[in-house]
Automatic annotation (TrEMBL):
Keywords: Oxidoreductase
UniProt keyword Oxidoreductase, yes or no: yes
Entries under Pfam families matching the protein: adh_short_C2
Naturally occurring in which organism (per UniProt): Zhongshania arctica
Domain of life: Bacteria
Membership in a protein family: Belongs to the short-chain dehydrogenases/reductases (SDR) family.
The EC number(s) this enzyme carries: 1.1.1.-
Gene3D superfamilies per UniProt: NAD(P)-binding Rossmann-like Domain
Single annotated GO MF: oxidoreductase activity
InterPro entries xrefs: NAD(P)-bd_dom_sf, SDR_DHRS6-like, SDR_fam
Protein name as catalogued: SDR family NAD(P)-dependent oxidoreductase
Amino acid sequence: MSKVLILSGGSQGIGFATAKRFLAEGYRVVNLSRRPIDLVGAEQICVDMQKRDWLDTCIDDLHAVAKHADAVVLLHNAARHDGDSVRDLAAENFADVLQVNLVAPQQLNAALIPLMKAGSAILYMGSTLSEKAVAGCASYIASKHGVIGLMRATTQDLIGRGIHTACICPGFTDTAMLRGNIGDDPEVMAAITGMVSYGRLIDPVEIVETLFFCAHNPVINGSVLHANLGQIER
């Protein structure tokens, strides 16, 4: 059986760990990102999803991959996380974040769904902030709320196709994105882990195992799964 994982943002963090896991399971892995994926056996298509016409340069390659696959797992993982506020978030900046986090996934959907066979899956990477909010990252929060809406629309629009979907919402995961946002201050790290019932960051591999389960179990179709070690609500 020919199985393919097509993912965005696989050059680091959860995306990289996911690519590694699926490759080990016999999947052909195709990564879409600006930076190449440093993983032997994985294929790279260099794209900049920030550009509205990014798909034009690679759609033929993607079609060639998908049309020959017995099953495709499409993982919308790439994301842009800006520090901003509704007090001063400019329309142009807001549109740039939405392009990467919400529009690009739908561009991929429209390009690949017609070629995806029954048994395929479309997985969306959400966030704890897909269903709650904090101050200081308005565009990210709005876009991740939108990701859940797009996932739910996918469920309804693909009824009868045998393609299932879910939105996986990681909590505080030990990735370059998280550490880039919180820095190396031990007090900040203690405050973050103090908000988790297990008192630690999530290992990316733990999210990967959740993704792998979702990719192979249609029973979760339409689900929003919070993988966060039990965050403490205050």
